[in-house]
Amino acid sequence: QVQLVESGGGLVQPGGSLRLSCAASGFTFSSSAMSWARQAPGKGLEWVSGIYSDGSTYYADSMKGRFTISRDNAKNTVYLQMTSLQPEDTAVYYCHTIYRLFNYWGQGTQVTVSS
Q1: Residues 9, 91: contact at Cβ < 8 Å?
Q2: How many CA atoms lie within 13 A of 90 on its CB side?
Q3: Mean pLDDT, 10 residues at a time, over the chain (115 residues)?
Q4: Sign of CA dihedral 54, 60, 62, 63
Q5: What Å distances lie between residue 113 and 33, 73, 84, 102, CA to CA?
Q6: What was the pLDDT predicted at 62?
Q7: d(CA 80, CA 100)
Q8: Which CA distances in Å does 87 have to 31, 66, 97?
Q9: I want to staple 106 with a disulfide (CB 3.0 to 4.6 A). Which of 4, 11, 20, 40 is the partner?
Q10: Beta strands at 10-12 and 109-113: parallel, antiparallel or unpaired
Q11: What is the rounded distance in angstroms from the CA atom of residue 114 to the CA atom of residue 91?
């Protein structure tokens, strides 16, 4: 079955950096688009970034220049490198894919930006 397992979240000071990882299994990772979304406390789900199977990437406007998505097909893993983090980036970050027309989400990893 499809599994997405995020890791790498934590507490970071404003201006700091974190790298999130999402380990995927149960589907053909190299052929699949992957994306990250987040949910801040009391807010709805917000799409963050995505990467296609050919490596092309896209970002929400507020993340451009600060976040970088990448993938390692040999490790079935997608990454989100986050820099210049601000308190408003505090959220649970989720990994996502669509496989055979179904949406799959990981369990999420908490990112807290605070001094």
Answers
A1: no
A2: 12
A3: 97 98 97 97 96 96 93 98 97 97 97 96
A4: negative
A5: 28, 30, 10, 32
A6: 87
A7: 24
A8: 35, 14, 27
A9: 4
A10: parallel
A11: 12
